[in-house]
Amino acid sequence: MATPNQRTAPYTVPGLSTENGHEVAQTLQQRLHALNDLQLTLKHAHWNVVGPNFISVHEMLDPQIELVRGFVDELAERMATMGVGPSGLPGDLVQARTWDDYSVHRATGVEHLAALDLVYNGVIEDHRDAIQKVGELDPITEDMLIGQVRELELFQWFMRAHLENSGGDLQHGGARTERGAAESAAQ
Predict the structure, then answer these.
(1) Number of other CB atoms surrounding residue 10 within 10 Å
(2) Is the pLDDT of residue 75 over 60?
(3) Which entry of 49, 85, 115, 121 is 20 to 30 Å from 102 by CA?
(4) Residue 3 pLDDT greater than 70, yes or no
(5) Where are the beta strands (DSSP E) in the chain?
(6) Cα 72–75–78 angle (5° rounding)?
(7) Is the dihedral of CA 69, 70, 73, 79 positive or negative?
(8) What local confidence, expressed as pLDDT, does residue 87 receive?
């Protein structure tokens, strides 16, 4: 019998051992935290963008935010299906994350896009790592993550198109921090 208020159930999806199902779900928890953070970061940039590209960047971010919110729900529901209660609590996110807060506040469109490009690099790289981790255990979850990466890469391309010159160089090329990317793009 399950103990009330526990995070895991004594089951998972058919075809997986409970241990493997719960392991996959724990991998998804970190992705859930990352995407919750991403949608909040995108909304922050949406509210704080200024300058001549304001409206194009402001409006470009809205569909990204909505799609990422959908990804969050998809991950949480997959976790619950696998017998693991997802956590969307802010304190849990802050405690578990391996990245820093977004460091750009009121800034131009290109500054935010340059910083967000680095954010997307991290989210996409970590999603790809999760794909590798769950691929052998659960192709259903692997497929879900692959679909999310495809969309995240598309949005990153939209952002990079604003930062790229005709030679393919990004205005913030080589920057390692969000603030550094924003400052390089501003020059």
Answers:
(1) 10
(2) yes
(3) 85
(4) no
(5) 49-50, 107-108
(6) 150
(7) negative
(8) 96
Positive or negative, the CA dihedral 34, 38, 40, 41 is: positive
> What are phi and psi for residue 50, nearest 5 degrees?
-135, 175
Dihedral angle at the C-alpha atoms of 90, 36, 49, 118, nearest 10 degrees? 110
Q: How far apart are CA 37 and CA 44, in angstroms?
A: 10
What average pLDDT is seen over the chain? Answer: 95
Strand partners, 18: none
Residue 15 φ/ψ region, left for φ over 0, alpha for ψ in the -120 to 50 degree band, beta for the rest: left
Please tell me the chain's helix, strand, coil percentages from 3-state DSSP, rounded to the nearest 5.
Answer: 70, 5, 30
Residue 93 CB coordination number (10 Å): 18
Rounded to whole angstroms, the Cα distance separating 180 from 156 reads: 18
| Per-residue pLDDT tens digits for 22-62 | 999 999 999 999 999 999 999 999 999 999 999 999 999 99
Would you call 32 exposed, middle or buried from its count of C-beta atoms within 10 A (0-12, 13-18, 19+)? Answer: buried
- Give 2's pLDDT tier (boundaries 50, 70, 90): low
Q: Report phi then psi at 105, rounded to 5.
A: -110, -120
The size of the chain, in residues, is 187
pLDDT of residue 64: 97
Number of C-beta neighbours around residue 152 at 10 A: 20
